[in-house]
Amino acid sequence: MNDHELDERLRRADPAVPAPEALDATIDQLVAHPLAGRVRRPWRPVVAVGGALVLVGTLAAATDIDEFLLSVPPFSGLEYGADFRPASGLPYVPTEGQDRGEQCTLYVDLGGLSDDQVATVGDFWTAADPAAFAAAVHERMQNPREEDIGSPEAIESWAVVQQSLAVLDQVVPGISWGAATPGDSFEPGDPHLVSVTQLCRDDLDGLEPGE
User: Which candidate among 78, 127, 172, 179 keeps its CA 20 to 30 Å from the CA of 54?
Assistant: First the structure.
């Protein structure tokens, strides 16, 4: 590498240098969609592939755009089958587990939404009533299905997913819980809640500068 090439690479890496217009446009589009990096507590479906159970969830390729997304809460990549995540999460205070009493935020990964639903869901999820959501989760926790009975934390996770589905069903009728098999995706008109990620204050406090 000669001096000119080194100067050029350093110039491109300088955060003060404006991003190209094409990159700005792509970032603007993605900010209205999913955001991504480190996941604190994701609740994902498990799918069977070739007789084996595979936990669904992969980070996107390490491109400049992906690195940008990984710098924004909830710091996680989209799950298999998801192509949309509202930019803002829903405030939530867990009542069980190691995050009990923490100020947390719930982010949802969605797939199979129509263009109209994508435009509606973001505002709807952001405007949802956190107190009403938490009260409904608590009520569900009192009456778990037999197959969901486990630790109190596991029951709360199930209740959060079920209440998320109930809330989203108001604007995405028929939405269901599930992830696509690796390599597949959901077609518009086949809406799915693919995962719920809980990011808490202690996660943010634990992030090192530059992470």
Answer: 172
